[in-house]
Amino acid sequence: MFDVRHYETIDSTNDEIRRLMAAGAGHGTVVHADEQTAGRGRLSRVWVSRPGNLYMSILLQPDVPVARRSELSFVAAIAVADTVRALLPKQARAMLKWPNDVLVDGAKIAGILLEQIGDATIIGIGLDVLHAPSDVGYKTTSIAASGGIATVDGARDILLARLEQHLQSWQQDGFAVIREAWLDRSYPIGARLRISVQGATFEGDFAGLDPDGALLLDDHGERRRIVAGDVGAA
Fold first, then answer.
1. What's the predicted TM-score (pTM) here?
2. CATH of 3-184, one of 3.40.50.10490, 3.30.930.10, 2.60.40.1180, 3.40.50.2000
3. Which conformational region is residue 59 in: left (phi greater than 0), alpha (psi within -120 to 50 degrees), or beta?
4. What is the mean pLDDT of each run of 10 residues along the chain (234 residues)?
């Protein structure tokens, strides 16, 4: 279902998708770049994008209400986690951190950025294949550093195959199936988490996901519903 367009160097794969949309590109268009000069992550953070890793954006226009498009964040996260798992030794485990980071042994190996443009959703994915940034303020790793063997193009092809599989499941069976798959790859219920929201930080015990994907935390008998924020282990 995907039409892959490859670039050696580009400013941002998400921005190129926007330009291609303006020129008539549609559902399933993929932009893959060897290097980004202006890559970005969540909350407008810089995404270090030198050659050797996977930088890719996918344009999706699924036949579901726009209000449900945020669920694609979880669909993409599961696809990336499955890709990492396929590329690493059997003993290594990819874990999902809400809302859509992928970790290996507590170190970030991939991130996902969703942008909504009218009835279209752009999913930007960065996966550390051969190297990981060392000056970002948190632990990072790569497929190679975690004992895996992969090429960037090979990782891309596996990821797109997994994404297509989970997209079909989402469209046919709804978000409940995706929610359970995400929970199976994430923190155990009761894990102590620290949440930062708009400058405030608090802790709570992980209580799962709401039916719409919001994070649930139990804190001194009160259940909190988190729709945006940064999460870490307490």
1. 0.91
2. 3.30.930.10
3. beta
4. 93 93 94 84 57 94 88 96 94 88 93 91 95 83 93 96 96 94 94 87 92 92 88 74
